[in-house]
Amino acid sequence: MKITKNGYLQAFGCTVVVLSLIRCAYPQIAGEKQSVIAESDTTSVGAIEEKDSIIAERPSLSSLQKVHKIYSVPSFKDAFPDQNDVQLLAAQHWGVKPVVDRTDAESRKSELVYIGSNPFFFVDRLNNSIPYLVPRASVLLQDIGHNFFDSLYVKGIPFHKIIVTSVLRTKEDVFKLRTHNGNATENSCHLYGTTFDLCYNRYKTVEGPDEERRKVRNDTLKWVLSEVLRDMRQNNRCYIKYEVKQGCFHITVR
Question: What residue segments make up the domains of the chain, in order of their start?
Answer without folding.
Answer: 5-58, 64-253
